[in-house]
Amino acid sequence: MKVRIALSLLFLVAFMVFAFSAVEAQNTYVGVKSCKMCHNKAKTGKQFSIWSESGHAKAFETLATEEAKAVAKKAGVEGDPQKADQCLSCHVTGHGASSEIHGDKLTMEEGVSCEACHGPGSAYKSMKVMKDITAGTIKGETVGLTTITAETCKTCHNPKSPTYKEFNFDEAAKKIAHPIVEIAE
Ligand code: HEC
Ligand code: HEC
Ligand code: HEC
Ligand code: HEC
After folding, report:
1. pLDDT tens, position by position, for the chain (185 residues)?
2. Ligand with smallest separation from the Cα of 87
3. What are the CA-CA distances from residue 143 to residues 6, 100, 139 (Å)?
4. CB of 111 within 8 A of CB of 57?
5. Torsion 172-144-96-102 (CA) sign
6. How far is it, in rounded angstroms, from Cα 80 to Cα 62?
7. How far is residue 27's CA from residue 145's CA, in Å, rounded to a whole number?
8. 50 C-alpha vs ligand 1 centroid, how far in Å?
9. pLDDT by residue (tens digit) across 13-66?
10. Which of 18, 90, 106, 146 could form a disulfide bond with 119, CB atoms 3.0-4.6 angstroms apart?
């Protein structure tokens, strides 16, 4: 009897794992280089260059500074901040994602990158899908492209940050703006 119950439980767990991974397996992280190849032309706004000069691109590097070590100590976090879940959760993209979703292209060194805000890119990063989204034939959400709101930012810009500064979405969005507009070289 006990064996039977244990077996059914085992099947139930196996089924749940399968069901969840089937849903989540749709969209996986592809890393910033996969976006750079199309999003670094002056003619369409050099989103990659703008991002790489922003604080977000340095968010992992920041965790190696003396300042970060002091912040960690004060927050009661032991050891190297670049290895601490309590810091990485907001300083790199996709921290804590399962290995299937995380993939091996996304690196910690890229810090807070495109997919931290726009969502994991495996399904939307093709030219056809990108054009269909812009044309309105496909809704971005259906292929993992997030509709960005203040809430997207507040998953990290919140009082759980040990260095929290009041967050104003409109002002902050202006500071990191990278619109599709021609940039003179
Ligand atoms: C194969 C080329 C290509 C790749 C790779 C690519 N994009 Fe795009 N993306 C485009 C093009 C082209 C447009 C604009 C389409 C247009 O203007 O018709 C676009 C538009 C967008 C938009 C605006 C969509 C909207 O709602 O109007 C976002 C956001 C975006 N891309 C993010 C990304 C991110 C993040 C990545 C990497 C995960 C990425 N793209 C990878 C070509 C690409
Ligand atoms: C995954 C976590 C995360 C998300 C999501 C996030 N941020 Fe940040 N942001 C950070 C971290 C970490 C820093 C500090 C980076 C550093 O100094 O090393 C930062 C810094 C900034 C800064 C100051 C640095 C600069 O480049 O001017 C601005 C402005 C900013 N974020 C705006 C935004 C906006 C707007 C959004 C949403 C559209 C957003 N952030 C979403 C983690 C995040
Ligand atoms: C901190 C959050 C954040 C990061 C990181 C980020 N973006 Fe964005 N992105 C935004 C916001 C906010 C907008 C403007 C609102 C919108 O279009 O959803 C935007 C808009 C865009 C657009 C559309 C611009 C337009 O004029 O329609 C493209 C293309 C884009 N991002 C590409 C990228 C690429 C490529 C990267 C990485 C190199 C990147 N983004 C990194 C938040 C971010
Ligand atoms: C809840 C998300 C979150 C967590 C967790 C987090 N940070 Fe940050 N961190 C941010 C954001 C957002 C910023 C940008 C400034 C702000 O508003 O806090 C930032 C900025 C920083 C800065 C730059 C200083 C500054 O004033 O801009 C340092 C250093 C830093 N964090 C260290 C750490 C360390 C060390 C840990 C782990 C003990 C940690 N952070 C955990 C979100 C977070």
Report:
1. 566 766 566 565 555 555 554 444 479 999 999 999 999 999 999 999 999 999 999 999 999 999 999 999 999 999 999 999 999 999 999 999 999 999 999 999 999 999 999 999 999 999 999 999 999 999 999 999 999 999 999 999 999 999 999 999 999 999 999 999 999 87
2. 4
3. 38, 17, 8
4. yes
5. negative
6. 12
7. 9
8. 15
9. 555 555 554 444 479 999 999 999 999 999 999 999 999 999 999 999 999 999
10. 146
Name the closest-CA residue to atom 36, ligand 3: 114
Q: Return the ligand number nearest the Cα of 73.
A: 4
Is 123 in contact with 27 (CB distance < 8 Å)? yes
Sole residue written with tokens 């990278």: 178
Please tell me the number of Cα atoms within 13 Å of 144 on its side-chain side: 21
116 touches ligand 3 (CB under 6 Å): yes
- Tokens describing residue 143: 């292929």
Output the residue whose Cα is nearest ligand 4's atom 40. 87
63 closest CA partner among 92, 93, 105: 92
Torsion, Cα 138 144 147 151, to 10 degrees, reads: 170
87 phi, psi to nearest 5 deg: -105, -40
Type of residue numbered 123:
A
